[in-house]
Amino acid sequence: xxxxxxxxxxxxxxxxxxxxxxxxxxxxxxxxxxxxxxxxxxxxxxxxxxxxxxxxxxxxxxxxxxxxxxxxxxxxxxxxxxxxxxxxxxxxxxxxxxxxxxxxxxxxxxxxxxxxxxxxxxxxxxxxxxxxxxxxxxxxxxxxxxxxxxxxxxxxxxxxxxxxxxxxxxxxxxxxxxxxxxxxxxxxxxxxxxxxxxxx
Length: 200
What we know:
Layout: H1 14-19, H2 35-48, E1 53-56, E2 61-70, E3 73-81, E4 89-93, E5 96-105, E6 110-112, H3 118-129, E7 133-140, E8 145-150, H4 151-159, E9 167-169, H5 170-176, E10 178-179, H6 190-199
Parallel strand pairs: 5-7
Antiparallel strand pairs: 1-4, 2-3, 4-5, 6-9, 7-8, 8-10
């Protein structure tokens, strides 16, 4: 059985990496990490340094079939989503509730709106309505560019779908979003942008 990481990437044992030349090529700009992995490492850094408390929301699952190959181990064989998830992350920063979604795309010139769902837009609309900080972190995977894009702009483009709009042009994200370079500690310092937008 193939073992895969939560982001869908196949697990490759270290020995195989060393013997397979095609696996030796590494992307040194982000060391092969997904956006989710980068955010999780960043959030761990924020928590360890007492900067903010931000966590990935657990996905609500209904487990229906479990097998016990050993007494000490249980294997989930079948499970279903209990309900549609809202956004990926939430937490508290400087006394404000914060809620955001993270998405990646391999498109070069736009970000497809099909990456989002109506229940996510509804949730973000409610967070904004109640004064929370709400945004999306977008990554253009081919160029390794990360942007913080306020939820109000996403909601505006989502509503334009009825008029035929299927994506957000990259030029719009560059104009109204905020570029976040990849660093080391923290990996993606999105709170620096939050300070500039919401607090300063």
